[in-house]
TrEMBL record:
<keyword id="KW-0472">Membrane</keyword>
<dbReference type="InterPro" id="IPR050922">
    <property type="entry name" value="LytR/CpsA/Psr_CW_biosynth"/>
</dbReference>
<keyword id="KW-1133">Transmembrane helix</keyword>
<dbReference type="InterPro" id="IPR004474">
    <property type="entry name" value="LytR_CpsA_psr"/>
</dbReference>
<comment type="similarity">
    <text>Belongs to the LytR/CpsA/Psr (LCP) family.</text>
</comment>
<feature type="compositionally biased region" description="Basic and acidic residues">
    <location>
        <begin position="1"/>
        <end position="24"/>
    </location>
</feature>
<feature type="region of interest" description="Disordered">
    <location>
        <begin position="1"/>
        <end position="103"/>
    </location>
</feature>
<protein>
    <submittedName>
        <fullName>Cell envelope-related function transcriptional attenuator common domain-containing protein</fullName>
    </submittedName>
</protein>
<dbReference type="Pfam" id="PF03816">
    <property type="entry name" value="LytR_cpsA_psr"/>
</dbReference>
<feature type="compositionally biased region" description="Gly residues">
    <location>
        <begin position="72"/>
        <end position="97"/>
    </location>
</feature>
<feature type="compositionally biased region" description="Pro residues">
    <location>
        <begin position="50"/>
        <end position="62"/>
    </location>
</feature>
<feature type="transmembrane region" description="Helical">
    <location>
        <begin position="108"/>
        <end position="132"/>
    </location>
</feature>
<keyword id="KW-0812">Transmembrane</keyword>
<feature type="domain" description="Cell envelope-related transcriptional attenuator">
    <location>
        <begin position="183"/>
        <end position="326"/>
    </location>
</feature>
């Protein structure tokens, strides 16, 4: 038997020594179960297991510690199947198993609000657009020479005493009578300047002016003689302003608009009892329905100021209508918003050249005036009871009127407050 030193030398110099091979360990077969002996299932030891498929060995990659590391093998920081975290192999270190994605309620709410906003916008724009297509048209463009364009925009508003569309019962209820033809109970100019305060100016219907082609007469006679076209021509000649837009409303239409707004609240300075206007009102603030509101703005016999007192009530009523029509209570109420739009469309007639943009500008100017940020004026008057060949009339103060309209023609409203009465 070789010594230990020889074994060490053989190991050092790589020499091999022949050594007897140890006898391999024998494996004794297990006894077969009884059923296998009778020709049944063969013994387990005789059934060979299928060979396992060979796994491909991924290439090694450099390790930060200087030795190649086999993926999935010892030393692989990512373990056999990815990063090893607290949850075991394949589970990221940041947490456990992947959770289902949660719905984001904030995003859902925002989308819902956006859809509702778009629907509301379509409703707010679509209803007036539909109503505008139902509005009647009249020829209001005068012939001949006209004043030049002034800065801003001037809109002529006319309240006609036309009984068109009213039955005998309605005429009796409204106290309009059955006079044939049509005249103007209300004539107003709405001026929206490029900058500064808008202005609402009343032209008394009995104003004594020159009617082109018909001599001196009351201004409302122009409408009775030649309709909107002659009235626009008369107003332009009397004021020196070019009319950019025109709209008129009759008795029945006025009542319909007021009723669509569920009435207008007005403060009556003193009790009114007028048989001709079918009025019996107490002093104080109260809501007037369409019929009562019409009598209130038409009354003049029971007013000590006559036509001048009436134009003040008309301006106050128009401002109140504009304020309520543009209020959130109307705009956010679908039923009232629809009724007001359709009632206005059936009540109003506009000039052939008047656009929806012109009308919108006039409406915004009226809203500003009704909010107290504009001016409400009456053309300067020299004699409210002038004895003219056509009866008692209102005579303008020519000098002051020229000054007022001259400033408007320049687009300046900053000095018009002095004309307030």
């Amino acid at each position: 038997m070789p010594s230990r030193r020889e074994d060490d030398l053989d190991w050092l110099y790589g020499r091999e020594r022949s050594r007897p091979e140890p006898e391999p360990t024998r494996v004794m077969p297990l006894p077969s179960p009884p059923e296998s002996r009778a020709g049944g299932v063969p013994p387990r030891s005789s059934v060979a297991a299928p060979p396992a498929p060979a796994r491909p060995v991924p290439p090694a990659y450099p390790s930060p510690f200087g030795r190649p590391v086999q993926p999935g093998g010892p030393g692989d920081p990512y373990g056999p199947s990815g990063p090893v975290g607290p949850g075991g192999p394949g589970v990221p270190a940041g947490g456990g198993a992947k959770r289902p994605r949660r719905r984001r309620p904030v995003r859902t709410v925002l989308r819902t609000l956006l859809v509702l906003l778009l629907v509301a916008l379509v409703w707010l724009v679509g209803v007036p657009a539909y109503a505008w297509n139902q509005v009647g048209r009249v020829d209001d463009t005068p012939s001949g020479k006209r004043p030049g364009e002034q800065p801003g925009e001037t809109f002529l508003l006319v309240g006609s005493d036309s009984r068109e569309g009213l039955s005998k019962a309605q005429q009796k209820k409204l106290g309009t009578g059955d006079v044939a033809g049509q005249r103007t109970d209300t004539i107003m100019l709405v001026y929206a300047p490029p900058t500064g305060k808008p202005v609402l100016i009343s032209l008394p219907r009995d104003s004594y002016v020159t009617v082109p082609g018909h001599g001196q007469n009351k201004i409302n006679a122009a409408y009775a003689i030649g309709g909107p076209e002659l009235l626009v021509q008369t107003v332009e000649q009397a004021t020196g302003l070019r009319v950019d837009g025109y709209a008129e409303v009759g008795f029945g239409g006025f009542v319909g608009v007021i009723d669509a707004l569920d009435g207008i609240r007005m403060c009556i300075p003193s009790a009114i009892k007028d048989r001709d206007s079918h009025l019996d009102l107490k002093k104080g603030c109260q809501t007037l329905d369409g019929t009562t509101a019409l009598g209130y703005v038409r009354m003049r016999k029971a007013d000590p100021r006559g036509d001048l007192g009436r134009v003040e009530r008309q301006r106050a009523m128009l401002s109140a209508v504009a304020a309520k029509a543009a209020s959130p209570a109307t705009v956010l109420n679908p039923s009232r918003y629809w009724e007001l739009s359709t009632a206005t469309a059936s009540a109003v007639k506009v000039g052939d050249d008047t656009t929806i943009v012109d009308t919108a500008r006039a409406g915004l100017a009226l809203r500003t005036v009704s909010a107290g940020d504009g001016l409400t004026l009456t053309v300067p008057v020299a004699n409210p009871g002038y004895a003219s060949p056509v009866g008692s009339a209102v005579l303008w103060d020519a000098s002051k009127a020229d000054d007022m309209f001259g400033q408007i023609a320049k687009g300046d409203t900053s000095k018009l407050a002095k004309f307030a009465q």
